[in-house]
Amino acid sequence: MDSVLYTLPESIRGHDYVTAYYYIELPRETDVLKKAGRLAVGQTIGTWVPVPGITEEIREKYMGRVVNVFDVPSLDLETQVTEEVRKYIIQIAYPAVHFGGDLPLMLTALLGNDASTSALVKLLDIVFPEEYVSKFQGPQYGVQGVRDYLGIQGRPILLNMIKPCTGLTPEEGAKIFYQVALGGIDIIKDDELLGDPEYSKPWDRVKVYRKAAEAAADVTGERVRYFVNVTSGADHIMENVKRVVDAGADGIMVNFAAVGYSTLKQIAQTAGVPVLGHAAGAGMYYEGEMNGMASPLAAGKLARLAGADIVMVNTPYGGYPLCHQKYMQTLCQLTLPWYHIRSSMPSIGGGVHPGIVEKYVKEVGRDIVLAAGGAVQGHPGGATAGARAMRQAVEIVEEGGCFEVKAREKKELAEALEKWPYVS
What distance in Å separates the CA atoms of residue 144 and residue 54, rounded to the nearest whole number? Predict the structure, then answer.
């Protein structure tokens, strides 16, 4: 046994290794230990054939190491093996010196060399040592910082995204913004599909939406915050961030799955306002059974590490067939203690309506953003009534008691429940 290539977990503990967990399926006759070894070498110092120049010093310092292989189910006797395809969890440690705080290089090291290693794997999780995570600032605001910034403590935060998703000029969007703001929503953001088209530049939206927010505040006494979508190409995204912040944006929104985690990190470190990371498009990372990453990693841990203060996550309740376990694990990745990294506030999106508010609060807690789109603009009484119904639902949940009984006393909420029934 090669004592450099194969190691025990205790031997790397306290050293600067990033440890990856993979799922792999192999023909019954394949030697999984050798396969794991080729993956560890191929993703660090070697390739598919032996090459000159690899010294023992290079192997010691720079080679990946196989830490563990677990078969699923756990079998110890050949007589127990009946399937022609075996399933395994492989644990490999990578020297962090190869990529430091560079997220693109880290993902390349962990996933990007499949053609060379000939290993079709799915990345399940990454365990980062504290030394590695110290290179990252994480969310600049985090859960409590977002609450302090908005001036909202205790209750869930309400968010609406302007609908229709695209096709509106800033002035047309501002009219909808005003109607929504009158109903008691806390944050209004762009839809993830609206970024930087010629007919609606993000800095122009900031200017007119601010006026709409101020006009609504004159009526309600509460000022809605606007998070503007800056998602665009690498050639001008940071210029867009500067321009919208200079124009008075309350927050930034970016589709991190499309622009990349390192771009999210750069925005979070420089914007100066809270950043909402939207997971639109993240399915391309995790929907494959035998490649990509697991959803709690792609849509949770890495977004938090990169610095998103709020992260829009999918749920099993809005029509998307996400496993409930993965949904809950994603929430854990965003919120549980993790070295010095602040928690990201989960934003629940997709199919959110007043009748499901109590279910989300019971299941997730109050440190969430409830993102309702169609249930606001699609309310029978209009956008103001839709926003008011969401606010009434939150207030009833905060008061306690029977939701369905109390909801009958609220006109807008009762109308909403006729269209979108209560979900227990």
Answer: 50
- Does residue 87 form part of some domain? yes
Euclidean distance between CA atoms 226 and 161, whole angstroms: 10
Q: Is residue 415 part of a domain?
A: yes
Regarding pTM above 0.90, the answer is yes
Residue listed under structure tokens 């979070």: 268
Residue 316 lies in a domain: yes
What is the per-residue pLDDT for 248? 97
Same domain? 318 vs 235 = yes
Question: 164: cis peptide before it, omega within 30°?
Answer: yes
Give catalytic status of residue 406 as yes or no: no
Catalytic residue among 122, 189, 265, 278: 278
pLDDT at 117: 65
- The answer to whether residue 52 is domain-embedded is yes
Q: Which of 87, 163, 207, 419 is catalytic?
A: 163
Segment-wise mean pLDDT, segments of 10 residues, the chain, 424 residues:
89 92 96 93 82 87 95 92 95 94 92 72 95 95 98 97 93 97 97 94 97 98 97 94 97 97 97 97 92 96 98 91 95 97 95 95 96 94 97 96 95 96 93
Looking at residue 14, what is its pLDDT? 85
Q: Could you list the residue range(s) of the whole structural domain that residue 106 is in? A: 9-133
Contact (CB, 8 A) for 67 and 12: yes
Residue 312: phi and psi, rounded to 5, are -80, 120
Contact between residue 295 and residue 286 where contact means Cβ atoms under 8 Å apart: yes
| Cβ–Cβ < 8 Å for 408, 414 | yes
The residue to which tokens 């799915």 are assigned: 122
Whether 163 is catalytic = yes
Alpha carbon of 11 to those of 15, 338, 414: distances in Å?
A: 8, 23, 62
* 214-220 contact pairs (CB < 8 A, 24+): 215/178, 216/178, 216/181, 216/182, 217/181, 219/182, 220/181, 220/182, 220/184
Would you say 292 and 327 are in contact if contact means Cβ atoms under 8 Å apart? no
What pLDDT was estimated at residue 4?
Answer: 87
Q: What is the reported pLDDT for 48?
A: 65
- Given a contact cutoff of 8 angstroms between Cβ atoms, the answer to whether 60 and 25 are in contact is no
